Amino acid sequence: MRTFLSLLKREFQLFFQNKVLLMLFVGAPILYGVLIGAVYQKGKVTHLPIIVVDEDHSPLSRQLITMFNESEVIYVAAVLPDAFHAKEEALKHEATVVVQIPKNFDANVNYNRSTELTFFVNASNTLTSNYASMAANVCATTLKAGIQIKAQQKKGVPEYVATQQYEPFKTTIIRQNIKSGNYLYFMLPGVLLTVLQQVMMLGLALSFASEFEKGTFATLVAKSSNIGMLILVKIAPYLIMSVGIYLLYFGFSIFYRMPLEVDMGTFLLGTILFLLAVSFIGILVSILIPSQLKATEILMVIATPSFILSGFTWPLSQMPDWVVCISKLIPLTHYLEIFRVLVIEHGTITNVQSSIIALAITALVCFMLCFILLSMKVKRMKKQTLTTRQDTKI
Question: Against a cut of 0.90, is the pTM above it?
Answer without folding.
Answer: no
